[in-house]
Amino acid sequence: MPRTTGAPGFWCECWTRNLDDGQPQTLFGSYDASTEVEANNWVSTILRTISPALDTDTSEAAWERLYDHRVNTRRALIRRVPWTVSVTHARAVITWTVSPVTYLPLAHRQSFELPLCAYAFKSHTPRTTVSSPR
After folding, report:
1. Cα–Cα distance for residue pair 38/34, rounded to 1 Å
2. Which terminus of the chain has fewer Cβ atoms in its 10 Å neighbourhood, N or C?
3. Alpha-carbon separation of residue 65 from 10, 42, 44, 87 (angstroms)
4. Is the distance from CB of 64 to CB of 72 less than 8 angstroms?
5. Cβ atoms of 73 and 97 closer than 8 Å
6. What whole-number distance in Å separates Cα of residue 107 and Cα of residue 77?
7. CA-CA distance, 25 to 13, in Å (whole number)?
8. Residue 88 phi, psi (nearest 5)
9. 9, 104 Cβ separation under 8 angstroms
10. Which helix H or strand E contains 120, and what residues bound it?
11. For the chain, first and last CA: distance in Å?
């Protein structure tokens, strides 16, 4: 079997945490970026989208990150250094992380025997619900 290598990329995540409830942070969304530009743009687009809804100080901090720190962010990602930015609005913290990763190729399964459980799987038709008359 020919040897294949992985492709470099970045794994991006957005986490949220409510400071009042004592619960751990929750993964809100994730994104797989192929380049540092794509990873940086993912975070920037989200910050740009939510900044009008943030309080004044937090919005200004987000815009400062978008413009003043963009070059430093790009340099860190080019060096493949993990990067994080957080904003706090009201009692919620939103954190974006970008981590360098190596994406591995998927295994080609045509030449391999599938496990027995693969043959036991039976797809089913989704159930439809009938609403009762009011």
Report:
1. 7
2. C
3. 19, 13, 9, 10
4. no
5. no
6. 28
7. 12
8. -115, 125
9. no
10. helix 116-120
11. 64
Written as one letter, the residue type at 110 is Q
In the structure encoding, which two tokens stand for residue 90, read together? 């009201």
Residue 49 is which amino acid?
T
DSSP of 29-83: EEEEESSHHHHHHHHHHHHHHHGGGS-HHHHHHHHHHHHTSHHHHHHHHHTT--E
Q: Residue 98 has which token pair?
A: 């970008």
Q: Which amino acid is at 40?
A: N
Q: For residue 17, which amino acid is it? A: R
